[in-house]
Amino acid sequence: MTSAATIPAHGGTGGRTAVAARARQVVKAYGTGETRVVALDHVDVDIDRGRFTAIMGPSGSGKSTLMHCLAGLDTVTSGQIFVADTEITGLKDKKLTRLRRDRIGFIFQAFNLLPTLSALENITLPMDIAGRKPDREWLSRVVDTVGLSGRLAHRPNQLSGGQQQRVAVARALAARPEIIFGDEPTGNLDSRAGAEVLGFLRQSVDELGQTIVMVTHDPVAASYADRVLYLADGRIVDEMHSPTADQVLDRMLLFSGGRPQATDVDASGRTS
C-alpha cells in the first residue's frame, strides 16, 4: 500500500506531502429515481497533515456532507475515503467506531458538554470511556494552549459560551487525534469569543502540529485556515491558500451568484 507520506497532492502544484485524509471519486446520493439527490459528485480531495483546512460553499453545496464522510460519520454511495493509509469505506461498525474514537476528534456548533462534570472531566471523558489514561504533560500543554488553566474545576453552567467551546476544543485535542473535524465550531459564539476559539485552533496547528478541517460559512473564520476549499453542487470548484477574509468573501460571492444548487442533506436526512 502507498505510504501516506508519498501520496501525490491533488489540486496543488504536483508536489508531495503528508496526507491526513483523502477522498477518491466519492459520490453521496440520497433517494432513488426522480427523488434522487446527489450531495457529493465524484469528489477527489487530499487533506494535508499539520494544516488547517476550511470547507466553504453555499447552502446545499455538500460541504457538511463532505466533512461527515471524511470523518466516518456518514457512508458514501461510491468511492473511497481514507484516514492516513486506512480505508474507512466498508469498515464494519465496531472498527469504524474504534477508529473515530482513537484517531479522530470532533468539535461541533453545540458544545456537547455534560453538565454534571467539571471542565477537566469533560475534557478527559472520551479517554476515560475508552479506558485510556491521558498523557498528563500533553494535557497540560493543551489546557494552557486554550487558556483553561484557571477553569478546570468549573462546571459548564459556570462558564461562558466561549469558555465552554474552549473545553470542547481541549477535549478534541487531548486524545492527540490524527485529525480534528469542526462543524461550524464558532456558530454559537459572539465575534469576540469566536475569534478566541479560532485563535486556539490556529495555535494548535502551528504549535501542536494538529490537523484541522472546519466547515464554515464565515469568511473571517475561514481566514484563519491555511487552505479554503469551495464546493458548489457537490463538487470542489476552487481552492485558496493563505486567504484573507476579503478574498474569501469575494470568492464566495463569485460561486454563489445565481447558481442552481442541490440540497445538502446530512446523515439524519436534515438539510443544511
Short descriptors:
alpha/beta; disordered C terminus; Rossmann fold; 33% helix; 272 residues
Q: What is the multimeric organization of the chains shown?
A: single chain
Radius of gyration: 18 Å
Mean pLDDT: 85
User: What would you give as the CATH superfamily?
Assistant: P-loop containing nucleotide triphosphate hydrolases
The largest beta-sheet arranges its strands as 6-7-8-3-9-10
CATH C-level: Alpha Beta
What percent of residues are in strands? 15-25%
Helix share of residues? 25-40%
Shape: globular
Per DSSP, the total helix count is: 8
Which architecture does the CATH hierarchy give at level 2? 3-Layer(aba) Sandwich
**How far from one another are the termini?**
36 Å
Q: Can you count the beta strands?
A: 10
Biggest sheet: strands, sense, closure?
Answer: 6 strands, mixed
CATH domain topology = Rossmann fold
Number of domains: 1
Structural class: alpha/beta
Low-confidence stretches: 1-16, 258-272
What is the element string, with H for helices and E for strands?
EEEHEEHEHHHEHEHEEH
Draw up the topology in text:
Layout: E1 19-30, E2 37-48, E3 52-56, H1 63-70, E4 78-83, E5 86-87, H2 93-103, E6 104-108, H3 119-130, H4 136-145, H5 161-174, E7 179-183, H6 191-208, E8 212-215, H7 219-222, E9 227-232, E10 235-241, H8 245-256
Parallel strand pairs: 3-8, 3-9, 6-7, 7-8
Antiparallel strand pairs: 1-2, 1-4, 4-5, 9-10
Helix pairs in contact: 3-5, 5-6
